[in-house]
From TrEMBL, chain A:
It is a multi-pass membrane protein. The keyword Transmembrane applies. CDD domains: TM_PBP2. Gene3D superfamilies: MetI-like. Keywords: Amino-acid transport, Cell membrane, Membrane, Transmembrane, Transmembrane helix, Transport. This is Amino acid ABC transporter permease. The chain crosses the membrane at residues 20-43, 55-77, 184-206. SUPFAM superfamilies: MetI-like. Belongs to the binding-protein-dependent transport system permease family. HisMQ subfamily. PROSITE patterns: ABC_TM1 (PS50928). Residues 19-208 form the ABC transmembrane type-1 domain. Pfam families: BPD_transp_1.
From TrEMBL, chain B:
This is Amino acid ABC transporter ATP-binding protein. The keyword Nucleotide-binding applies. CDD domains: ABC_HisP_GlnQ (cd03262). SMART domains: AAA. Pfam families: ABC_tran. Keywords: ATP-binding, Nucleotide-binding, Transport. PANTHER family: AMINO ACID IMPORT ATP-BINDING PROTEIN, ARGININE TRANSPORT ATP-BINDING PROTEIN ARTM. It comes from Lysinibacillus composti. It comes from the Bacteria. Residues 2-236 form the ABC transporter domain. Coiled coil: none annotated. The keyword Signal does not apply. SUPFAM superfamilies: P-loop containing nucleoside triphosphate hydrolases. One of its GO terms (molecular function) is ATP hydrolysis activity.
Amino acid sequence: MNINFEIIIPYIPYILGGLWVTIKFTILSAFLGILLGILLSIIKISKFKVLKALATFYTSVFRGTPLILQLAIIYFATPQLINYDITGLQAGVIAFSLNSAAYTSETIRAGIMAIDKGQREAAVSLGVPYNRMMLDIILPQAFKNILPALVNEGINLLKDSALVSTIGTADLLRRANIVAAEQYVYFEPLLFVGLVYYLIVILLTYSAKLLEGRLRVSD
Amino acid sequence: MIKVENVYKSFGKLDVLKGISVEIQPGEVVAVIGPSGSGKSTLLRCMNLLEVPDKGDIVVNDTEITKSSTEILKVREKIGMVFQHFNLFPHKTVLGNMIYAPTIVKKKPKEEAIQQAMELLNKVGLADKSDVYPSKLSGGQKQRVAIARALAMEPEIMLFDEPTSALDPEMVKEVLAVIKLLAETGITMVIVTHEMGFAKEVADRICFLDGGVLIEQASPEDFFENPQNERTKIFLEKVL
């Protein structure tokens, strides 16, 4: 056995500096992904045939190609096409939001469809306009039901965020790799960031449980 | 006033309404009865365009709702609807259910809406439940809240779609008592029901539907004591 964690101790602050990058990235992507996901899901249940077809096509493209490819295309194509020097974080947030929206739009759509149609009928009978009905009556109930699925998506985003290390962003994994390359030890720094990822996921799961419990007061 | 003129409605191959015409006068209480699948609920749901007729016209207070569907939300504000399965908003408290539409649709100030909601809850005997979520209420209580919620919009017309059909027998009475009280206030009401005794007691007029056709309409006395149509007689023999 030849394990020595002492070598990486001086580098722990540096590696943990990547934690903020990872978290910022995940929160931004999750937030934008859900917003776009809501928009797509509402288009999918609407009556506008052309928009519906576009939304379905969008979903099939982003679900049908590898995420790392989408990331690379956005990162490398943007400077070439529109002459904008995009940062790794920007490219990452864009790629991950767009990708995540494709998945969450299906989850949200399923959540909306699962709400009893009597809810819609009660709202419209009271004269409530469509937008308010969606916002106040349908979506809150749908979100409560799909919260576990959305937490899954958040966890996936957090772990997949490690992919941005491939385009040079100094996130947790990238920093672990840099330390590894400098010190010629791979096992210890990688194991260390593995533990960090795992701990955030546990924390996220636990907070989601608390939130779920709070949303259950009406049950 | 509601005027239904020669309305047809089918779901796929199933013809549910086959040319129904009926007029409901202001202040009138009309009970719609008939066997299951006769189109009673569909007729009622056409009156606020929850179902869109395939053919025919429906006029509510001079607005032809089958023509100007853009105005339907405005018309619906004046028509309260009570459903078989209550359809309370489960994520809102009783009070939240009550004040939602008045504050959103009528832009009523919140304090005013709350005050009015509490008065209505008092009338249906549920003022003490204002902070409770619907899941904690019995069926009868839910339906009374649903009635109060519809009344909070100060409608001119109330539509009841089998309001007691989903209730346990011991709760039917409390809901019917509330509807009866309401009938005495002079509000226009259309009630789809299976409760013959109630229909007889509360309605000014009975409409009997069978197979998507309005077979007979008459005052409760005439309808129950002296039915004219053969199908009405057969139906009444079965249910009375």
